Batch of 2 targets.
Target 1
Amino acid sequence: MDFIERWLGISPDSGDGSTEALYLLAVVAILALVFHKRIMQFARGFFARK
């Protein structure tokens, strides 16, 4: 993961990818919080089927 280095030409984490991984994790966490209700409804319906 080095999209920051390629897009912006800077290396905030010296090229090891930890900053990009943190940003990706933050986006996934925010999306999970935003769509929590829909995710739970889907999970209930999905696991209730047999």
Target 2
Amino acid sequence: MQFPSAEFPDHMKTQSLLLRLFVGLTMFLAGAALLHAQSVEVSPSEISAIQGGDRAAVKEVLRRNGVDLNDPQAVRQAVGSLVESASAGVDAAGAAQALEAISSTVVGGAVEAAAETGGDVGSAAEAASAGATESSVAVALSVGADPGEAAEAASRGGTRGASDSAGSADVNGDGTADSRDRDEVVSRTSRGSSEGAVEASVRMGIDPSAMAERSAAGSSRAAVEGAVVTGGSVGDAVRAAARGSVQGASRGATISGLDSASRDQLIRSASTGSSESAIMSAAGLGADALEASRASSSGAVSGAVEEAAAAGQDAQTAVSAAAAGAGAGATRGSEAAGLSAEETAQATEQGAVEGAEEGAAATGEDAASLADAAAEGTFEGVMESEPESEPLPVEPPDVDDGPTDPPSPS
């Protein structure tokens, strides 16, 4: 028996063709990005060593190729090339895990090399993390993996690797090496990861807001994990990560030529990812989740103020976006972690107001108006993200079946 062939409507044929063209173009752009990143020569044995977590191999490749560790663009390209080379052969299922480990090794090696040679460790950390996240997104797209998951994995790995490798370097230039230098590395790495994720997503035609959120989440998670392992301040680490992620999202928007509304949306997304991840990570590791919530909103808002001032943007709008993102993330994070939504919201608002006041002090903006914007923004984010309450059960009305039959005469 022969069945008649199926004939699809013309509009469905057109949609199918457009989808295939879009997928093909995305794969082409991802491949082009990877080819562009190939700027260092690396041997098969060195690739194997990097895949095994050997930072010494990374340092040797950078040294042999003459990479100037004080040149951010050179570091970014070299790290992107190494991440791409070491990722050869990964498949969609294992991409995120592989990219996290590779990013940790490569970024850590670059930061360690900068520290050992007296280079600018903060600049190296920022450039390396941008290159690692950028290439990770391209790798994910080229193998059909989730680019957001790849951005989160690369950010987490890069932040962890940089923090572990900075050692006793005086990163912030205050003449002493202490926990503040570690926090500065976290901030710079988070900034680079966020910027790299946004730039890569815009270039490859995928949603930059989702990428900014996932990248910030990865950085915050690594910040909490690092603080818990080393006995450092979870609040300081989270504040640094949130500040860097928001700054990177804003800078990525500027470099990519996005408008103000898009930039504010990216700020909000980065703040959301940072807040939610910080709360969930802190709760999961037995740290103070309310402290993490407060610190994340503080860092996000202060970073937004500083970036708005530097870019000539409206500071109140930036504060509102960052605070709303923190409120949304706090609501989601507290719900997932089983925490009090009210207490988490209060801590988030306190942090947002503190961040606004800190940002105002640093930039000369009006502290009172920024604090008001922070409080209002937090409330907006919390209200928009609160789960809808279950509808109350409604009792069915009594049904009147009409008059009953009259009694029969006796």
